[in-house]
Amino acid sequence: MSMVRKKYSWKQLALGAGLAVLFLGNLTFYIWYQSESVRLGYRIHELEMKVEKLKEEIKKLETRKEALLSLDRIDRVARNELQLQDPKPDQVIFEKQVVK
Length: 100
Prior knowledge:
Layout: H1 10-68, H2 71-81
């Protein structure tokens, strides 16, 4: 029994090579797409955590701003640190209002 080797034509070899290249190209693209999706998912999660942290920091800063701008604190700083006093009656000047 002799083994006969089937010969492939140039067109069949080119078609087979082309299909192999297409298959490998698609496989490469699919793997890249999946890895990129995972990478972007991690990045999105990281940025969402950063946004939450910044929102908390904004709340803390707004609370601090309110405390610093409270009228009681401003009055205390004006009297104790800046040595300001209430004006005396002779220091107050009233302007006449012109009625049109």
